[in-house]
Specification:
Layout (H helix, E strand, L loop, with lengths): L6 H8 L22 E4 L2 E4 L1 E2 L4 E7 L22 E3 L26 E6 L9 E7 L15 H5 L4 E5 L4 H5 L11 H16 L5 E11 L1 H11 L9 E5 L22 E3 H14 L17 H6 L3 H4 L2 H6 L3 E3 L8 H6 L8 E6 L4 H5 L10 H11 L2 H10 L8 H26 L4 E6 L37 H20 L19 E4 L7 E3 L1 H4 L2 H7 L8
Parallel strand pairs: 2-5, 7-8, 7-9, 9-10, 10-13, 11-12, 13-14, 14-15
Antiparallel strand pairs: 1-2, 3-4, 4-6, 6-8, 15-16
Helix pairs in contact: 12-13, 12-14
């Protein structure tokens, strides 16, 4: 999830996500490895066999949203004749590089998904489907970097990873569009409808679909939990480091940033879209001068080159999901509290040190060298009384240095305690299971160097290598990965994360029933997360600590 709206923050947050049509081989070609063929509802696809699992990449689930289809709800993908090669992923959606300099990459023709599945068996119960929505702050990322072979093989599940429109292409609004239709969420819903139509062809059960995601992907899962248009498209949900109430106190990382909230009122997005159109020469200025383009502002914008729209300013400005529309009638956190969400079992959790990697990328410009600087940072983010209360709960002397203290309180205020509040709301109506990933030696797969004095430990996204194949794990971590894979796939299969050989994971009855996930003896155990993360303080301040709702 990208928490920052400016270029520096864009590069930071983008680093936290982990990292097309073909032709049929000519007749008479030498035989090669087994290449499984599956007949989808739009045509046959030829995948690749990898022994215990098969992969099918770059399957279109909707028509390319290009030309006149830019900023329209997804339409069905066209059928194709013959057998389409699905040996590689399709194009990623237009985005800026997550790290360093460089211009836009990707294509608007990007609505592809990838399937990883054990070979289709002739008999036996169909497998569960797990549909993954990637992170990236709704500004970058794709489905293909996530290799779910561990989930498919050890968990005997069919896993689908999805591309969806990003930034200005996925979350734009304008009066001529009738609002801000949340095209990114509509893309994901189209992918879920594809799963419903095609799951059986890959040996899976369309009546047993789990949506799961991390960061922006978790915010997407939250949105689907409360979106009327997502009703019936999934049956379980896993929310990883992106609850409906995720937030960040103002000026906590950069002095120019206000309170972060991932969901915005539709009117605000529409106003920003109208202003952007004017700046791009496609709208009527405030002085009433004639609009450029007789066909209207949006038609004018549709004629612009995609890469000219993918500027840091526009990609970041349109990275918030709008509510107050057909997709999200109500702000999602409020919808949860009022019990207005789909009645499906939910797993929800965070990592222990979520904010360390975010803070680490800003310390060079805005250091916290001593207690005086620490106190000044608190006074920037909170009123005087709250700042004193926060410092009393998180005294700098109790931590290795003030930066660690600041990262700890921001992790609790922004992620862990909001997630627990949402779990309380969910648990009143549906089976809910809470976790806290706490491996302080988790591998750093982001490519970002750690800052001296601020080890990233169990930071944002650091649980992903335990579910997806990305970087090597030490022996105790491999055991934890096996346990987590078992929990996640058992939940997908039955709605209960009760993996064979793993400690029992109790339903969320109180914050004391949160499952701590760490390697080694006793690393998996229940804990009182609310007390350990000072949530009484943040609950007393909420919504002041979490912005207006």
């Amino acid at each position: 999830m990208r928490l920052l709206r400016r270029r520096r923050a864009h590069a930071l947050a983008a680093a936290l996500s982990l990292l097309a049509a073909g032709t049929t081989p000519a007749a008479g070609a030498a035989p090669g490895p087994r290449q499984p063929v599956v007949e989808t509802d739009r045509g046959a696809v030829r995948g690749r066999a990898h022994g215990a699992y098969d992969t099918f990449g770059g399957i279109p689930y909707a028509a390319p949203p290009t030309g006149p289809l830019r900023w329209r709800l997804p339409e069905p993908a066209p059928s194709w004749p013959g057998v389409r090669d699905a040996g590689a992923p399709g194009s990623r959606c237009v985005q800026l590089p997550p790290l360093g300099p460089g211009g836009p990459s990707g294509s608007e023709d990007c609505l592809f998904l990838n399937v990883t599945a054990p070979p289709v068996r002739g008999r036996g119960a169909p497998r569960p489907v797990m549909v993954w929505f990637h992170g990236g702050g709704f500004q970058n990322g794709a489905g293909d970097p996530y290799r779910p072979d561990r989930l498919a093989v050890r968990g005997d599940a069919v896993v689908v990873t999805v591309n969806y429109r990003l930034g200005i292409f996925g979350l734009f609004g304008h009066p001529e569009l009738g609002g801000a239709p949340d095209f990114a969420l509509a893309d994901q819903q189209a992918a879920l409808r594809w799963v419903r139509a095609n799951a059986r062809r890959f040996g899976a059960d369309p009546r047993n679909v789990t949506v799961f995601g991390e960061s922006a992907g978790a915010l997407s899962v939250c949105a689907h939990l409360v979106s009327p248009a997502s009703a019936g498209l999934f049956h379980r949900a896993v929310v990883q480091s992106g609850s409906c109430s995720t937030t960040m106190p103002p000026r906590s990382l950069l002095p120019t940033l206000g309170t972060y909230e991932p969901f915005a009122p539709e009117r605000r997005t529409v106003e920003a879209g109208a202003a952007a159109a004017v700046r791009l020469g496609c709208g009527r200025p405030a002085d009433g001068a004639p609009a450029v383009g007789a066909a209207g502002a949006v038609d004018c914008l549709r004629r612009l080159d995609a890469h000219s729209l993918a500027t840091p300013e526009l990609m970041q400005r349109f990275s918030l999901v709008s509510y107050g529309n057909a997709a999200l009638p109500t702000e999602p956190g409020r919808a949860l509290r009022e019990g207005r969400f789909h009645r499906v079992p939910v797993v929800q959790g965070t990592t222990r040190d979520e904010m360390r990697i975010f803070l680490g990328q800003t310390l060079a410009a805005f250091p916290v060298p001593d207690r005086a600087a620490y106190r000044a940072r608190l006074e920037q983010s909170f009123d005087a009384g709250t700042a004193r209360a926060v410092e009393a709960e998180y005294p700098a002397a109790a931590y290795p240095n003030p930066a660690v203290a600041l990262a700890t309180l921001l992790s609790d205020a922004s992620f862990t305690c909001p997630s627990l509040r949402d779990s309380e709301a969910l648990a009143r109506h549906v089976p809910t299971y809470g976790y806290l990933f706490a491996d302080g030696d988790a591998p750093n797969a982001t490519g970002l160097a750690e800052v001296p004095g601020l080890p990233y430990a169990a930071s944002h996204g650091f649980e992903l290598p335990y579910l997806f194949t990305s970087v090597p794990l030490a022996a105790p971590q491999r055991e934890l990965a096996d346990r987590m894979t078992g929990y996640w796939t058992a939940f997908a299969r039955t709605g209960i994360p009760a993996a064979e050989g793993a400690p029992a994971w109790p339903r969320y009855r109180s914050p004391a029933s949160v499952l701590n996930l760490a390697p080694g003896a006793g690393g998996i155990r229940t804990a009182d997360a609310r007390a350990a993360h000072h949530c009484p303080l943040w609950d007393a301040q909420w919504p002041a600590a979490g912005g207006s709702r």
